[in-house]
Structure formats: structure tokens, C-alpha cells
Specification:
heterotrimer, A mainly alpha (318), B alpha/beta (237), C mainly alpha (330), A: 318 residues, mainly alpha, 72% helix, B: 237 residues, Rossmann fold, six-stranded mixed β-sheet, 10 strands, 38% helix
Chain lengths: 318, 237, 330
């Protein structure tokens, strides 16, 4: 029994080793290491997006496609404020605040109207909201190349003979800390316990007197702040472009799928692995052009792997 | 005879069914027990929606648990759910027809069979009504007709009388008793209405906390002090 | 048998409208509008594929425009590589897109409905990247068939060389697409789908092979999407990766729901909103950039209050009007 559980981890570890070994073959270890490191950074973003999705989904039953759009709005706000000459940290706080506000608007005003509909319908509604937010953001800021820089972009840290940007390090550390923090929150605090009860069985939780509205609002809030942070980091590390940031929800979904929409640790590791594999593909002259589709292919394969030998079963509510 | 042997079901740490065995040989058999006893779980095992840790369910030499869920229906298993699952967009006739769509008999035969079963349950005049336009009782009758087409061998009803008036329940009871004569199938009935069970079932299985606590002729079982204790939670009658 | 060929009032209205459009519309349109209407016709075919999947089975596909791109790619490649007539290219494009769609959806078809939405959204993102990287065939060499400079011509159907005739051809294909879906609905697949929509458990208990029928339905969606893409290639002669972005797939799904996924009227409204309305706004010089906002809001509204979309509300209003009239006449 125990062996079966460890079998998956072993498989994953072997796979990662094979990929890194295969693509890194013949390169200097430091260079390969740099690819792995920046892959970890991008992967952290995928993981953070996935974590936001999973936490919210477990607590409210809503799979939020609009997280990326909220993050994009936040990132553009931060950029705009710094264009107007405000001190940078104000912009960062504004980013978090805007993403939080947008997410709460949906969570408190629109989501309750759909509370008893099926999961797919609730997810489709967030798609509509994502289109609205993306439309407004594109309208307010016309299509122009823009960039956000953080002070940590210029700082390099020497690890194992490699020079790694501080921003990348922060993002990676943040993803691990946030997962740990959320785990602590869910496992050790009262609200976390209530959130787990809600995720387990909403009707029963209501009957037990758990303040659903308050717990859900907190879940939406966490999701909003995460979206803002992820959006800002994405804007810094990849590109500050509303459509691109909005659709970063796609690799986040890929990471969330790895964790079967429930296991945060697997989401984290899935996201990180996707980032690394995607980055390692740069070293292959053949596959380099299609490396951005790596997260999707990985998620599809993981999903197929989960289903092997399985029949559709009905255990409880969907 | 449907032989259920050593069926055990686990959901994580909870043991939903614990080594349940029973040989259902009568035309109509009942399954009763307090809430959470595992009655619907047992039916879900037979339907194929829930996996077992161990156990078998054999009839006519075939272990049902080895077949895919939709193939059990082809074999002759029929299931009616607590909530009648009738498609709103289809007519009564079409709803029943789905059950035998897969078989290779000519369309004319299928139509005739659907019509004869609809006549048996009393829905023949309403064969062209859409599911959305039916009353609750009519939906249940359509559900029953669906269970009777295509040479059924085992028909399972999960709380068929839920939400019905006394008259409707009585009508349903009469209908259930006619099933074996009309189709040769044996019937399993889960219900909380003890009067219905006493009226309709020749033998009854009683479950409590996933275990079998009594099985045998219905009257004997219903008078069993252990059964009364399980329902009332006391040692005394 | 008679029920199979029975035409409802709505069906007669559809045939009448189609007849009008096929006979009269091409003559009335300038070349600008010919191209707009032809485009709308292609997307109408694709939208019908997505709409029926959602309305009849509750399955969400967020990659239909991506699948159109696949169909278009195959049609272009075949056209430049071989000498088959257009119809052969069309059929091969539709079939290969159907198979491609199956491959994409495979991970999700045995899981909860939500996973299909997720997987198709990921597929849409992936296809967007593939189209941008490899571009569309224009007569070049090699598997990808791309060359610099001007592209080789695309052979249109023998019967439909001119722009007017091609519009007619596309409209006829759209009508055939609707009839194809309706045929399925009236036969065994339609019954199985209706029961699956109600409850997958009940469907399985009734002997329906749920995975098979869900796969079949998704196959139809892919088939129609691929055909639509091939038709679009025939209309434009050359395809651009900007047409097949992930956001476009999300948009036409949104519009299918807004228009009304249950009926052909809804699909028609969706196609008009997607192609004709922006063309109009373009001519009038009105700012068309807020389309995302409007359609997103429309989707939200439709999901919350009007599940049958604009068409459903219009048809409901019409029925109420007629019922009121009957009561007055009686």
C-alpha cells in the first residue's frame, strides 16, 4: 500500500531527472542550472496561479477563469501609477488592491446568484467576467509595448556558481512560502477549518452553523490577493500585456489539473515541473519553437495517467 | 436467484458495507435499514457506480461486478433512482425506448414492446407527452416502464414511493407485484415505508451500519427484536 | 418514420430564411458584404457545433475556433500539395479535425464535465501558439508548406467560383450542418444525449455507453468546426493566425450562449453578433473595441437569468404573444 503511494513520486522524480539530463546533455552545468532556475521561477508563477484556483474552487465550488484578468488589471494599475510618478511600492499595493477588489466584486455580487447551479455553469460565468475585465483593461490602455521593472531585477544572487536574479528567487520562495502558509492556515486556524468543512460538504457546513458568507469572502479575498501578486510578477518576468496576463490562467489551470483540483503540494510541484520542462526545451533545436505548449501537453498526459484503468464512478456530489 | 457474497465497500476510512451476503430468491425482495445503513450503496455496487474491496453478485452464472455498468443493463439489470431520471426533452415513449436502443431487434418490435409496457403501467395514452409535462407520479410510472422493457432479469427500485400519496403508493405496490408475472424478472425494493415493504416483499434484508443484521421472510424480519432495536435504538420493544 | 421527417414551424421558418438568403442575399450585397456574410456563414457552421454540444449535453468546448484553424490548415495543405477537388479537401479537413478533436478531448471525456472546459481551453492556448509558430500553408515546400512571398491560389468548388456563388455554397453547408445535428437528435444518439444530460448515472443504468456518446457528440463538434475552417480557407484563400486565437474560441462560445444555444435562431444571432455587427460598426466608425465587454456581460446575463439566450427570450415572447392572441380569438 505504502509502495503504491510512493510509486507516483518516484516516477515523477525519475521523469524530471531524465528530462533535465536529456536536454542538458553536453552543456555546462552552470548553464543548465540557469535554465532550471529560470524554469523554476516561471513554474512558480504557474503554481501560484494554480494554487489560487484550487483554494477558491475547494472553498466555493467556483473555478475562477478571471484570476488572470484581475491580475492584469492590477499590473496595469501599478504601471500607470508609476508612470504618474508615484513611489513604486504604492503601485504594488495598488496592484494587490485592484485585483482584490475585482475578485471580491465577482465573489460577493455575482457568484451568490449562481450558488446552486452546476460547476460548469459557474465556471462559464467567470469566463464572461474575465472577458469584461479584459475588455475594460484593453480599452483603458491602448495596445502599446510596456514594461514593469522591480528593484530586485537588477540584483543578482550567487548560488552554486550561478547568478540568479533576485526577482526570480523571490517568486520561487514566495510560491513555497505561500503554499506552506495556506496549508498552515487551513490546518491550524479556525477559519481554515471552516473552509475545509465548506469544501467538503457545503450544505452540511451551513447546517452546522458555519458562517458561509464570511468564509467564502475570505477565500475570494485570498484568491484576489494571489491573483494580484501573480499578475505583477508575471508582468515583470514575462510581459506586461493584458491579454497575455489574462490568459496565463491557462498554464495555471494546467498546474491545478496536476493536483486534481485539490492537492496543493502536487499543484506546486506540477507547476514548478512544467516551468522547468518548458524552459529545458529551449535547449532542443527541434522542440524549441513549441515549448510554450509544454504545460498543456504535460497536463493532458498527467490527466490520462490519473485515469488509467479507471471507470467513471460516482461517490458524492460534483 | 441473485447471490450476493461478501460485498465490502470502503470510502476512505469509512466502511460503508461490511461483508454483506444475501441470496435473493423471491419474486420481490426488500432492503431496509436506518439512514446511512448502506442500502443505496448496495444498489450502487450492483449498478456499478461504486467499487468494492471484495465480493461478488452472481445470477444465472454471471458475476455482475465483472461487467461495465452499461453492460449490466444489456445483461438485464434495471435501476430506478430515488429521484426519477426522466429526460425532459424526450417523450414518454422515447424515454422508455432508450433502455432497448442498443439491442439489435427491429424497430417495429421495439416499438411494440415499449407500447406494451406503457400499457402495463398505465401510461399508454400519454406516450407522446414530453417528460417536462409529466406529474411526479407519471414520471415514476414511466421510470417503471423503462425498467420493464428488454427482458429484464433484476429490477431494482430505490425508494420508489418517495413523495407519493397513499393511493399512489398503493398503486405502485400493485404494479411491483405484477412485474415478475409479466416479465419473469425479480425485484429488489429499498424503501422506508414499512407498510409497502410488508405488502409487496416476500423476503427482506435489513442493514445497519453496513452490516446485515437480519434476512428472511418479511414478517419474521420485521418482528425481529434486533431489527426493532436498530430502528428505535433501544433494546426493548 | 414520419416523425423523422416532420418539420416544425421553427424548421419551416429556418428553411424559408435560408431560401431567401441563398437566392436573394448574394445579389443584394456589395463585395464587402459578400465577404462578411460568407465569413458569418462559416462561423455559423462552427457555432452550431459548439452550441448543440452545450445545450444538449452540457459539455463546454472552448477551442472551436482553434479546431476551425486545424480544418483550415488541412484544407490549405491539401490544396497546395495535391489536385483534389474542393469537396474532397473539405471532407478530409472535416474528418481529420474530428480525429484531432478526439485526441485533444481524450483526457477529459471520461471525467467530470468541468475538465472538458479546462482541457479545451488549454488546447485553444496551445493551438494559438502552434498557428503563430508554424503559420498556415500557402504553397511552400515541406510538411508545413509555408513560403515567403505571395501565396499560391486556393481552388474553390467547381460550382461556386464567384463570390456570390461561394456565399450560396457556404450557406447551403450551414443548413446541411444543422440538418445533420437534427438528424442525430431525432434518432438513437439524441435520445442517449438527452438522458446523459439528465444524469450520467441514469444513462449508464439504462444501458447507454456514456463515454461513447459523449465522444460521438464531440466528434460532430470537431467535424463541423473543421468543415467551417475549410470553408473559411476557401473564402479568403489564405488564413492568418490572428483569426484563431484562444480568445476567439472563448468569444464564440460566449456568443453561442448569449444568442441561445438550444436553437438555430440562437446560433444565427451569435454568428451575426460575431461577424456582421462589428462590420456594421466598422462602417459607421463606431468604436468596436468594447465588444469583449459587451459580449462578456451578455454571457454573464445569459448564464444568470436567461439560459436560453436572446433567441429563447424572443421565442418565449413570441409564444406568449400567440397564446394571448389564441385566447382572444377563442
Amino acid at each position: 500500500m505504502a509502495l503504491a503511494r510512493y510509486k507516483n513520486w518516484l516516477l515523477w522524480a525519475v521523469l524530471m531527472a531524465v528530462v533535465i539530463g536529456w536536454f542538458g546533455w553536453g552543456g555546462r552545468p552552470q548553464m543548465v542550472g540557469l535554465f532550471v532556475a529560470s524554469g523554476l521561477a516561471v513554474g512558480s508563477l504557474y503554481a501560484l496561479g494554480g494554487i489560487g484556483i484550487v483554494v477558491l474552487y475547494r472553498a466555493t465550488g467556483v473555478l475562477n477563469f478571471a484570476g488572470g484578468a484581475a491580475g492584469a488589471a492590477g499590473a496595469m494599475t501599478a504601471w500607470q501609477l508609476s508612470e504618474w510618478g508615484l513611489w513604486d511600492p504604492i503601485g504594488w499595493l495598488a496592484c494587490l488592491a485592484v485585483a482584490l477588489a475585482i475578485t471580491l466584486v465577482y465573489g460577493r455580487l455575482i457568484a451568490p446568484r449562481l450558488a446552486w447551479r452546476e460547476t460548469v455553469v459557474k465556471a462559464v460565468a467567470t469566463l464572461g467576467f474575465a472577458l469584461i475585465v479584459l475588455g475594460l483593461v484593453s480599452f483603458l490602455w491602448i495596445d502599446d509595448p510596456r514594461a514593469i521593472t522591480l528593484p530586485t531585477d537588477g540584483i543578482g544572487v550567487r548560488i552554486l556558481g550561478m547568478r540568479i536574479t533576485a526577482t526570480r528567487l523571490i517568486v520561487f520562495a514566495a510560491s513555497i512560502l505561500i503554499v506552506f502558509g495556506i496549508w498552515l492556515f487551513l490546518a491550524r486556524t479556525r477559519v481554515g477549518l471552516q473552509m475545509r468543512a465548506l469544501a467538503n460538504d457545503r450544505d452540511l457546513a451551513a447546517l452546522m452553523g458555519i458562517p458561509i458568507l464570511r468564509v467564502e469572502t475570505i477565500a475570494w479575498g485570498i484568491s484576489g490577493v494571489l491573483a494580484g501578486f501573480t499578475g505583477l510578477m508575471f508582468a515583470d518576468l514575462i510581459r506586461l500585456e493584458p491579454t497575455v496576463i489574462t490568459f496565463m490562467v491557462i498554464p495555471s489551470i494546467a498546474a491545478a489539473i496536476c493536483g486534481r483540483l485539490e492537492n496543493l503540494t502536487v499543484v506546486l510541484l506540477g507547476g514548478l515541473s512544467m516551468g522547468v520542462i518548458e524552459n529545458m526545451l529551449t535547449l532542443s533545436p527541434v522542440l524549441r519553437g513549441v515549448r510554450p505548449i509544454a504545460p498543456f501537453v504535460i497536463a493532458a498526459l498527467v490527466l490520462l495517467y490519473y485515469q488509467r484503468g479507471q471507470r467513471l464512478t460516482f461517490g458524492g456530489r460534483d | 436467484m441473485l447471490e450476493i457474497r461478501n460485498v465490502t465497500v470502503r470510502f476512505g476510512g469509512v466502511i460503508a458495507l461490511n461483508d454483506v451476503s444475501a441470496d435473493f430468491g423471491c419474486a420481490v425482495s426488500g432492503i431496509i435499514g436506518p439512514n446511512g445503513a448502506g442500502k443505496t450503496t448496495l444498489m450502487n455496487v450492483l449498478s456499478g457506480f461504486v467499487g468494492t474491496v471484495s465480493g461478488s453478485a452472481t445470477r444465472d452464472g454471471q458475476d455482475l461486478l465483472r461487467l461495465a455498468p452499461h453492460r449490466r443493463a444489456h445483461w438485464g439489470l434495471r435501476r430506478s433512482f430515488q429521484k426519477e431520471e426522466i429526460a425532459d426533452d424526450l417523450t414518454v415513449h422515447e424515454n422508455v425506448l432508450v433502455q432497448i436502443d442498443h439491442s439489435r431487434t427491429p424497430a417495429g418490435h421495439k416499438r411494440a414492446e415499449v407500447e406494451s409496457m406503457l400499457a402495463l403501467v398505465g401510461m399508454a395514452e400519454r406516450a407522446d407527452k414530453l417528460g417536462a409535462d409529466l406529474s411526479g407520479f407519471e414520471r415514476r410510472l414511466t421510470d417503471v416502464a423503462k425498467c420493464l422493457v428488454g427482458q429484464p432479469r433484476v429490477v431494482m427500485f430505490d425508494e420508489p414511493a418517495g413523495g407519493m400519496s397513499v393511493d399512489e403508493t398503493r398503486q405502485l405496490g400493485v404494479l411491483i407485484r405484477r412485474i415478475h408475472g409479466a416479465t419473469g424478472a425479480q425485484v429488489l425494493v429499498i424503501d422506508h415505508d414499512v407498510d409497502l415493504i410488508r405488502e409487496v416483499c416476500e423476503e427482506t434484508l435489513v442493514l445497519d451500519f453496513g452490516r446485515r443484521i437480519a434476512f428472511g421472510p418479511t414478517d419474521a424480519v420485521l418482528n425481529d427484536p434486533r431489527v426493532k432495536a436498530a430502528y428505535l435504538g433501544t433494546e426493548e420493544v | 418514420m414520419k416523425r423523422l421527417f416532420h418539420v416544425t414551424p421553427s424548421g419551416w421558418a429556418g428553411f424559408a430564411l435560408a431560401a431567401f438568403a441563398i437566392v436573394v442575399l448574394p445579389g443584394l450585397s456589395s463585395s464587402y458584404w459578400l465577404s462578411v456574410f460568407t465569413s458569418a456563414g462559416c462561423f455559423l457552421l462552427a457555432i452550431s457545433g459548439v452550441a448543440f454540444l452545450y445545450a444538449r449535453l452540457g459539455m463546454v468546448s472552448l477551442t472551436q475556433v482553434g479546431l476551425m484553424g486545424v480544418g483550415g490548415w488541412v484544407a490549405l495543405r491539401l490544396n497546395h500539395a495535391f489536385d483534389f477537388p474542393f469537396e474532397v479537401n473539405l471532407a478530409l479537413a472535416a474528418l481529420s479535425t474530428m480525429v484531432f478533436g478526439w485526441v485533444l478531448a481524450l483526457p477529459a471525456l471520461r471525467m467530470r464535465g468541468l475538465y472538458l472546459a479546462l482541457v479545451t481551453l488549454m488546447a485553444a492556448g496551445g493551438l494559438e501558439i502552434l498557428f503563430a509558430t508554424f503559420q498556415f500553408p500557402n504553397g511552400g515546400e515541406g510538411f508545413w508548406g509555408v513560403k515567403t512571398g505571395s501565396s499560391d491560389p486556393f481552388r474553390r468548388p467547381f460550382l461556386a467560383q464567384s463570390a456570390e456563388d461561394y456565399l450560396r455554397y457556404v450557406l447551403i453547408c450551414a443548413v446541411l450542418g444543422f440538418l445533420f445535428i437534427e438528424l442525430h437528435r431525432r434518432l438513437q444518439p439524441g435520445r442517449a444525449w438527452a438522458l446523459i444530460r439528465r444524469s450520467e448515472a441514469a444513462a449508464m443504468a439504462a444501458g447507454v455507453n456514456v463515454t461513447l456518446y459523449k465522444t460521438w457528440a464531440f466528434g460532430i463538434t470537431g467535424l463541423l468546426g473543421g468543415a467551417a475552417g475549410a470553408l473559411l480557407a476557401g473564402s479568403l484563400g489564405l488564413l492568418d493566425d490572428g483569426t484563431f486565437r484562444a480568445s476567439e474560441s472563448v468569444m464564440i462560445f460566449a456568443l453561442a450562449v448569449v444568442g441561445g444555444a438550444r436553437s438555430w435562431q440562437g446560433a444565427l444571432i451569435a454568428a451575426i453578433l460575431y461577424k456582421v455587427l462589428p462590420a456594421l460598426l466598422n462602417i459607421w466608425g463606431v468604436y468596436a473595441d468594447l465588444s469583449f465587454v459587451i459580449f462578456g456581460a451578455g454571457l454573464l446575463h445569459a448564464v444568470i437569468t436567461a439560459p436560453d439566450g436572446l433567441a429563447g427570450q424572443a421565442l418565449g415572447g413570441l409564444k406568449a404573444l400567440l397564446r394571448g392572441k389564441d385566447r382572444r380569438d377563442a
